[in-house]
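User: These chains co-purify. Model them together.
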Amino acid sequence: MTASNTVRTRFAPSPTGALHIGSARTALFGWLLARHAGGQFVLRIEDTDQKRYVAESEQEFIDMFAWLGIDFDESPQIGGDYGPYRQSERLDHYQKWAQWLIDHDKAYRAYDTPEELAAINEQRRADGLPPGYDRRHRELTAEQEQAFIDEGRVPVVRFKVPLTGKVVVNDLVQGHIEFDNSTLQDIVLLKSDGFPTYHLAHVIDDHLMQISHVTRSNEWVPSLPVHVHLWHAFGWELPQYAHLPVLLNPNGKGKLSKRHAGFSESGKQVLVLVKEFREAGYLPEAVINFLTNIGWNFGDEREVFDIEEAIERFDIGRVNPANSAYPIEKLDWLNGVYIREKMSAETLAGHLRKPLEQAGLNVDEATLQVVAPLVQTRIKTLNDVVDLAGFFFKPDFTPASADDLIQRKMDTAGMIAMLQHAEQRLKTLDDWQTDALHSAMLTVVEELGLKNGQVFGGLRVAVTGQKVSTPTFESMEIIGRDESLRRIQQAINILQAG
RNA sequence: GGCCCCAUCGUCUAGCGGUCUAGGACGUCGCCCUUUCAAGGCGAAAACACGGGUUCGAGUCCCGUUGGGGUCACCA
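Assistant: Joint model of the two components:
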């Protein structure tokens, strides 16, 4: 480690698009590790691939992490003592150290063209050999190099990996891993455009930025031995490596990617971008709690916990090395828990305004406040409020059909009679509140010899226009006397017309 | 295919040689409550991939098989 014992971890995304939920989890674990140790968490933008660069990507990362509550101590925006934090602004470092490796006979220039490389692979395939570079430029003479240069070829810099022996790594998550050097490749360190590859850049930056723990997804394990050799070539002290498991598709087949999004076997849409979770009405606290529970657990049998508690208990060594199928169905449950148990109705009301307005509804604050407690135990996502209780905010009431109005074991005539009877009762009622409405309708049930559900249900559909809604009397109280009576009359008219 | 990793209920997981007749959670199913839908309460079904070892004793350690995943770019 470096002079200090400070734990420093980083999230180092390539700005090629929107933030993926799997990347967010990898970042989360690195963040948890840093926060647990009271260390620092750094954002470094790995924009070394000019072809895949997406300009909006960086801002998207910033926004999504802010939403999730994952904060950085250093980043391109915040700055810090180890900047710049964009690799495209650190090119001089990579070029300098690549040259250093060449000077110390640990790397070499290779002048092969892409076509030649393709031909090599084709030949090797034909010969039954595994693909890879055959190291033909590993020991070029000065004259040979000059000849290539004269041809106008632009070289890449390749690493001279050790050809024999083995590398052993003790990964914090994966444990003991070993590789035979004979299986390694002379990977490209510096591309012909002067930009570094990930391999070179991350080692230099993690060293220069004094990163103590490299947390990344286990897709990197195959290149780990080469990275270890690079650290040794530079003579730098290695950070600890922690290769985190990846998220697999809900059916366990293949890693979760945007490409494989779509629907799970249960028909539920599989969300993979962080912004999709936000748009779908999930709470960031629930998403974090959900993610934290995959590959790691609280330590006792609790599934619901605050992020502060997770930070306190987090232990990178207890992370499960096995990849996990993405248990997306658990998020709905957890989000429901957060909605009903982790916030007041008032707070919930605040969260409900946006989805309601996005559905084109006009949200009156007073109404929202009384509706919130009614939906609190009934919604899984914030957006669910639109279907369940959107009618409270619709300027124009959409009445239900005769079919929906008619309750079980009742016919049109019976329904009309019931509604008319109820209407009479309600008209004489001077206390238009839930309890009074309830007891008044209870007498209607008795007088007509019906079931509670037949009367209450019929009124529900008449007044809310929905078969599934918030409770009948609470809803009637909110809708108000005049409008409720108007809707009941309207229902009667519909039944009579049908 | 080569290399690397992984392997407990459908899924996420607890389990770090005996306390496991394998625990929790989601989901599923049943019952209760009930004006719909939820929520809540109670309960049920549901797993140590297989085969060898090691050991007095193995879900826990070792080997193999099978299965799964990852990776083999001048992408990260």
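The domain at 397-497 of chain A is CATH 1.10.10.350 (Arc Repressor Mutant, subunit A).
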